[in-house]
Each structure stands twice: as structure tokens, then as C-alpha cells.
């Protein structure tokens, strides 16, 4: 029984063509899921489904109009990201409504207490950027945040809450994050001739005031500053230009990461295809090698069977020669005893003759059923199935009169497998003799 198809393996185009070619009730059977799951998948991929009564109108002869496949969410965001960012993004007007998140950000800045320097508010909540500014700059900071959200959210880059308790929020797209921090630096107070300036450590903050110039930091790492980008407000770099450059930097950062992932996916797919081709070639070579090895072993088994049968014939002949010689020796012993004892044999002699004839009988190859033409003669190697079963080997024992020839010793040459004989022991008498 074939396994049902997987709905999540279809592309948007395949799903669109499928959902408009057959009713959802048939898709339920084909994919093994409910019609609710089919509609959820279509909603997730932004694929329009046929309206109610579409298939009834189609059966009655009417041809309802089939809509075009709308662009996906990714395509819409990519199209939005292609729009150029103005060179200068001014702060919102005084009566302009802020983004809901920017409005909450402004309210949090105004309601927060001053930090230890008694000059700035240090806001470190997960919903907002990490901020350390004076309350006089709260409106400007909220306006900057409003403009960034207004530009980046349509491009699919929302500002998300941080999971930690002591870190600010971040811009996020997919699994990538970009932390945003706003800071207003402290500057020295102008000299007051009526008041003496303090220099001890606990009163250093009393000599500082908020400078009124904002510093913005975008950092892909929560900890560390090696990859951070920084903008400092000044006469040459206005706030409107900074907002524009930050919006371009955030959009470009996530676009570069997405492009790198796509390039990496292409490289991985190319490597996977090359690996599959290489693996297929290796399997084919391995199959050929195993086939050649099986042929070689088959030929060796056939040759070994023929060689063993030839050796069995020689062994049987030698055993027969030993048997005939042993029988002749036993007969000669009996003749000598009878001649010396006037034809009579003692009990010990008769027992020895019976034992000797039994031993000699065991030496005869006929006692083991040799030769059997079906087991010990020539055989047709072509009739033997490839890989066996092979003819049974008799395994005749080696006659004591036939010497066992040892296999030849092969000395391997080369640096890696060189043969080095064991050194002879140094003569003791030569090692310790006196000079």
C-alpha cells in the first residue's frame, strides 16, 4: 500500500494548481489529512481557495473565473524592501500620531525615575530599545523609534521583545536579531566661578550634565562591540540623516543575511548533488568490485574442488600402497612364526595378528567408501550454481609417507611493508671479552 503524499512538500504553485483542480474532499483522501488542514496550509502560503459553490457551478456547465496566484508574503516583503529609503527622514510633527509601540516607549521614558547620575533615565525593558537619555530628549527619541518602525515593519522587520530581564528589545527577522541602543552622553558643566569644582570620585557625576546629542548603536550581538555600528548626532550628521542611515543599515543587514543563506543553500544543494553523484559512482564501483570478487571466489572454489579431488586420488593410492605393504608384512610375520614353531601360533601371536589386520583394514581407502564416482571423479564446473552450493570435499587425511610441502614465503618489498628478519643475538663471550 502506497504512503499518502505530504502536503507540506508542495510549492505554492503546485498547491494552487491542485486546490483549483479537484475538491478538498478528494484531497483529504489523497493526503490523508482533514480539509481544515488543507485550508490552513493554503492560508499560510497565501494561496486562494475556491469559494463555496464553485464545484457545483462547474458541474452545471458554468465556468467560474479562476483568480491569479497572488504574491507570497516573502515576495511582498522583498518588493517592499526594494523601495528606496529617503536620504533624510524628519521627526514626526508635534500633532502626528505615533506608532503604538513608540507611544508606549515615550510614556515609559516620561514615567521612569532618574538613574544614579541624576541626569538620565536608564530604561532597560524588553519591549523597548535599551535607552539612557534625559527626559528632555524623550520626545525626540520616541520620534526616531517611530520613524524606524514606520520604515522597517512593512519590510518584514518588526521590533520584538527581549526574552531577558536586563536587555532591551531588538529588530528581528526570522532567527536573526539586531539590538538597538540609544544613549545621551554626559558632558562637563560649564565653569561657575561662584562654585568650587569637586574632584573626588563620589562627586564626579555632579560635574556632568546631559549633552543633548544622541548616540545610536546597532549591534547584531547582545554582548560585544566588534560588529556594532554607531551614529553620533552632531552638526555634520543631523538626526534626519541618522534615521535614514539606520533604516538602510537595518534593512541591508537582514537582506545580506538572507542572501548569504540563499547562497549557502545553493552551495549545500550543489554539494549534495555532487555527493550523490560521487556516492552513486562509488556504489557502482563497489558493486563491480564485489561482482569481480564473487567471480574470483567462485573460480577459486571450483579450482579447489578439482585440486582436492586430484589430491584425494593420490592420497588414496598412497594409503592403498601402505595397506598392501602392511598386509604383506603381517602375512610374512605369520609365516615366520609358523615356520619357527612347526605351524603353531601362540595366543599372544594370534591376538597381535588380529590387531594388526584390523589396523591395516582401517588404512584401506575402500573402508571410507572411496572411490565414489559421483563425489570423487571429474565434475562439470559450469553446472555448479554461481556462489554455491559447491561439491562436498572428502578431506582425506595426509598419509605419513607423503611429506607436507609448506607454502612459499613471500617477502614483501617496499618501505611500508618491508621484511626485516630478526637480528641474531650478540655472542656473550664476544661482548664481554677482555681487550
Key structural traits:
435 residues, alpha+beta, 10% strand
How would you describe the overall organization of this protein?
With 435 residues, the protein is an alpha+beta fold. Among the domains are: 7-70, no CATH class; 80-237, no CATH class. The chain has helices spanning 12-19, 24-31, 35-44, 54-59, 73-81, 100-111, 138-152, 239-340, 347-363, 373-376, 428-431, and strands spanning 121-123, 130-133, 159-160, 170-173, 176-188, 208-219, 229-232. Strands 1, 2, 3, 4, 5, 6 and 7 form a 7-stranded mixed beta sheet that branches.
Q: How many strands, which pairing sense, and closed or not: the largest β-sheet?
A: 7 strands, mixed
Task: Outline the low-pLDDT stretches.
Answer: none
Count of separate DSSP helical elements: 11
Proportion in helices: 40-55%
What's this, in brief?
By secondary structure, this protein is α+β, with helices and mostly antiparallel strands. The chain has helices at 12-19, 24-31, 35-44, 54-59, 73-81, 100-111, 138-152, 239-340, 347-363, 373-376, 428-431, and strands at 121-123, 130-133, 159-160, 170-173, 176-188, 208-219, 229-232. The protein starts with 11 loop residues before the first helix and ends with a helix.
Indicate the topology.
Elements: H1 12-19, H2 24-31, H3 35-44, H4 54-59, H5 73-81, H6 100-111, E1 121-123, E2 130-133, H7 138-152, E3 159-160, E4 170-173, E5 176-188, E6 208-219, E7 229-232, H8 239-340, H9 347-363, H10 373-376, H11 428-431
Parallel strand pairs: 2-5
Antiparallel strand pairs: 1-2, 3-4, 4-5, 5-6, 6-7
Amino acid at each position: 500500500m502506497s504512503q499518502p503524499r505530504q502536503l507540506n512538500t508542495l510549492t505554492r504553485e503546485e498547491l494552487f494548481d491542485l486546490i483549483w483542480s479537484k475538491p478538498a474532499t478528494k484531497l483529504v483522501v489523497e493526503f490523508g489529512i482533514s480539509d481544515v488542514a488543507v485550508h490552513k496550509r493554503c492560508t499560510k502560503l497565501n494561496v486562494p481557495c475556491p469559494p463555496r459553490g464553485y464545484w457545483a457551478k462547474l458541474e452545471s456547465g458554468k465556468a467560474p473565473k479562476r483568480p491569479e496566484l497572488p504574491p507570497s508574503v516573502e515576495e511582498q516583503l522583498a518588493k517592499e524592501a526594494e523601495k528606496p529609503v529617503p536620504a533624510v527622514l524628519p521627526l514626526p510633527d508635534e500633532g502626528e500620531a505615533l506608532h503604538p509601540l513608540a507611544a508606549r516607549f515615550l510614556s515609559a521614558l516620561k514615567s521612569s525615575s532618574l538613574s544614579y547620575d541624576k541626569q538620565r533615565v536608564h530604561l532597560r525593558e524588553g519591549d523597548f530599545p535599551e535607552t539612557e537619555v534625559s527626559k528632555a530628549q524623550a520626545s525626540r527619541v520616541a520620534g526616531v523609534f517611530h520613524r524606524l518602525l514606520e520604515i522597517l515593519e512593512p519590510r518584514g522587520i518588526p521590533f520584538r521583545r527581549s526574552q531577558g530581564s536586563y536587555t532591551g528589545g531588538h529588530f528581528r527577522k526570522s532567527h536573526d536579531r539586531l539590538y538597538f541602543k540609544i544613549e545621551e552622553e554626559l558632558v562637563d558643566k560649564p565653569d561657575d566661578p561662584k562654585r568650587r569644582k569637586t574632584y573626588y570620585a563620589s562627586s564626579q557625576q555632579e560635574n556632568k550634565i546631559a549633552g543633548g546629542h544622541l548616540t545610536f548603536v546597532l549591534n547584531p550581538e547582545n554582548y560585544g562591540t566588534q560588529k556594532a555600528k554607531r551614529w553620533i548626532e552632531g552638526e555634520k550628521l543631523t538626526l534626519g540623516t541618522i534615521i535614514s542611515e539606520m533604516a538602510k543599515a537595518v534593512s541591508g543587514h537582514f537582506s545580506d543575511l538572507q542572501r548569504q543563506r540563499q547562497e549557502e543553500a545553493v552551495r549545500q544543494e550543489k554539494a549534495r548533488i555532487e555527493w550523490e553523484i560521487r556516492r552513486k559512482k562509488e556504489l557502482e564501483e563497489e558493486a563491480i568490485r564485489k561482482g569481480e570478487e564473487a567471480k574470483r571466489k567462485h573460480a577459486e572454489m571450483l579450482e579447489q574442488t578439482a585440486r582436492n579431488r586430484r589430491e584425494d586420488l593420490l592420497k588414496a593410492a598412497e594409503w592403498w600402497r601402505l595397506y598392501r605393504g602392511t598386509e604383506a608384512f603381517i602375512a610374512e610375520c605369520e609365516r615366520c612364526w609358523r615356520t619357527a614353531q612347526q605351524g603353531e601360533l601362540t595366543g599372544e601371536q594370534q591376538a597381535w595378528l588380529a590387531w594388526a589386520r584390523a589396523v591395516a583394514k582401517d588404512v584401506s581407502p575402500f573402508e571410507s567408501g572411496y572411490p565414489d564416482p559421483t563425489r570423487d571423479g571429474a565434475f562439470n564446473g559450469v553446472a555448479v550454481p554461481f556462489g554455491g552450493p559447491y561439491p562436498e570435499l572428502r578431506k582425506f587425511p595426509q598419509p605419513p609417507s607423503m611429506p607436507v610441502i609448506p607454502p612459499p614465503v613471500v617477502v614483501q618489498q617496499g618501505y611500508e611493508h618491508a621484511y626485516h628478519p630478526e637480528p641474531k643475538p650478540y655472542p656473550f663471550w664476544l661482548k664481554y671479552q677482555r681487550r
